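Anyone have tokens for Cytochrome P450? Sequence:
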Amino acid sequence: MKSLGDLVITISSFLCVFLVLALITIFHKLWWTPNRIQKLMASQGIKGPSYRFIHGNTKEISKMKKEAMSTSLTNFSHDIFSRVQPHILLWNKSCGKNFVQWYGCQVQLVISEPELIKEILNKKDTYPKRKLLPLMKKIFGEGVATTTNPQKWEKLRKLADHAFHGDSLKSMIPTTIASAETMLKRWKNHDGKEIDVYEDFRLLTSEVLCSLLLKTSFKIRFPGISKFFKTSDEIESEKLEKGIRDSIVDIVKKREKEAMTGEENKFGNDFLGLLLKAHHGADDNQRISVDEVIDECKIFYFAGHETTNALLAWTIFLLAIHPDWQEEARNEVLQLFGKQTPNPDGLAKLKTMGMIINETLRLYSPVISYDRRVDREIRLGNLIIPAGFELYISTMSLNSGDKMCIFSNQSDSLKGQDCSVNDSQNYSFTLSPGYVHSPYENLIVRPQHGVQVMLHSL
Ligand code: HEM
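Reply: yep, here.
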């Protein structure tokens, strides 16, 4: 009996010690460390909202974002900073360009100072990308845009660079034009009616990417990134992920079969062909696995799809409320191409279009933040950043507002929901009276309710 009592006492003591240690660890992680870091950063002049136990600043950030999203922007204001990143705007004002915020107990240094941003983005080995959350990793895979492994990045980046060479891009023009013409044919039935260009460009960009990356027509339909984040249902995400994977595997197998039977010139000269060549290559160091082929296709699709979709839609929105710039863009297009199909040489001469796209990227950039991490203590500018920090680069404060804006003379044209715009060689646009100006961020900055315009053939 005595020995049983001893055993109970021993186990209880162990449990007590274990509990105390667990409590100390939790207390250390959730209270002591955040407070120590806050003091350390404050001593270097870096302030920030106070850390709150367990939640950090997540609750106040969600509240601010919810409030900002509860109304739409009036007068088509381009000042979208207060809407998509209200917390950063507020803390930029009260704490400075660089400040510390907390995602739970994870510390983030928010950086808006151009010199520091340059330094971080120029030193990719010192500031690697942030590791993806498990669900995101599952969906996006580990491709060039997401891998945190420098050797893997280098290998994949070489392949990706090929796809963006001038000649590769030139060879993509006919496919892109063919897809745009298909879209314009669809628009023929909508003369005088409302269309949502955001929806239509979703189809167009998806079609272009599928044909460019995989030389497949749009038989497989990849979902947009947003689809994954509309639902918290992991099972649904898994199903979608599996669907995408299976579609790519089918295309890969078909391509490999064609290469073996000699139907196709080796693996083809599109991006998938390039990846398959690397997969079957003799050089062990450069060879990539089937999973890497699949992840690379996924990454290119996701990185290219919704960004381009949103950019095109925002461009149409801006042109719809600025008929003067519409006119200029149309004149330029007509001068260079008349009613002919655009050609590569002429495309390079589209100066006004280039300005319009750059200005759209400035005002409505689909990507407004970059995530990096700090693995070892590091000096950034005059700051010493301890290991374990995440860096959140916010480019909104650099770009936001109407300053230097080619679309700045907006006040008069704004009243014009009925303002007419010449958008292409074939159509003019009027912004639909039903359009609601509601930019929001869900990974990328997109029009929450689409971009509805009235279409008028010329
Ligand atoms: C308006 C259109 C686009 C915008 C605004 C945009 C923006 C960006 C930004 C800001 C990054 C850097 C992210 C970071 O370093 O954290 C990036 C990376 C990347 N983008 Fe895009 N992108 C666009 C279109 C595309 C397209 C069409 C493709 C491919 C078809 C693409 C493929 C990639 C890839 C592969 C990376 C990773 C590069 C690397 O890490 O080396 N993007 N993009």
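The first helix runs from residue 2 to 42.
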